[in-house]
Amino acid sequence: MFRTGWAIRRVAGDGCYHGLAMPRPARSRALLALTSLMAAVLVACAPAHSTALRFSTWGSLDEIATLRPILEAFTRKEGVPVELIHIPDEYAHKLRLMVVGGTVPDVMFMSNEALPGFARKGVLADLALRLAKDGQLRERDFFPQVLDAMRWKGTLHGLPRDLSNLVVFYNKDLFDEAGVPYPKPGWTMADLQRIAPKLTVPGKRWAIGFQPNPLIWTPWVWSHGGDIVDASMTRCTLGDPAAREGLQVYLDLRHRQHVAPSDKDTGNARMTQLFATGKLAMFVYGRWAVPGYRRKIKFNWDVTTFPAGPAGSVVDTDASGWAMSARTRQPEAAWKLIRHLASRESIEAFTRSGLIVPSRPDVAYGPAFLSGSPAGSRVFLDVIAKGRPTRVPPAYDEITWELIDGLGPMWTGEESLDEALPPVIKRVDALLAEVR
Fold it and tell me: What CATH number should be reported for the domain whose range is 24-162+319-374?
């Protein structure tokens, strides 16, 4: 049975089925029955076989608007129609249900965090030989780090569209107002701790954002030399000294130094909104914020590197790209679609909006990426060399939610690091052992 990950909140918005979130204690009892039900429903909803390639993706309406002309150009060139399956939320969960139901798309947009769960079940085709033999596309067309992110156990299961990494967005006007020099590449955690009080006005604005999502706090752990799981992905390592130090430094921004907002300070506002309204001097985030900020922000802003800790400045080099179903009836056409999507022209089209850090150096070092705001866009490229993909065990989804749920009281100050970590580590270890 294919793992369904955490609770299913909503299933594909096609009118076939809409589910409800299950509380954690009910998951183990309900998932098997629910997955079987979903399989039957999805088979009933599946379209009759046609010559069209079925292609699934997530993305905003703006992103889909960029994608459609690319797909139309492919159809004109190759004579192969493409059925676009747009799944804007809970993408990986809905894709798992499609696999269980026998309706897996021919080509799937896939993140490297989701990829292992599909690859270990034999859902994804090996693309290495096709890429090696292709006359139009080569391995050297991509940053090696992002190509590696689309591998599982050494097998290439996708061609990357983009690199997902984190930088520090900062409000230059607030720095000027406080008389603080702008943070430069190479700055450190000590620099951050020194300038943060000068950028904070209690109750009005804060030096830096604070988010409980592991995506955001993992660089604090990595940059102190720690990690969430070990290299063999058999043990949770958040209790190791280096990881604990990174977590504590992050916690102290909120609870000891009071330079990051609390939940009470923010209400329901997101860090992206607080930054856009001038209430944050800095926050850690990814390239996907850029299109909206280009349209909405009136103040001067830019990006810089994540502050270096004892192990340096270490952020993720995760990726998203296109994978092929191992069960497709049209493997040649599916490869041609992937090749078309990964071409320089297509990657440039995705890049111009500011949405992505492109997977191809020939696009990344050109005007499609480097022109426009932020002026320091090259920072996204400069951090690649020292970055690393997230370690993704097959139970990654469930582990992520264990971290979010279990560490929640620590982030709010209801529990200390010593109180919150042990039960979370125990549950993560159990999930790692369950997969083994």
Answer: 3.40.190.10
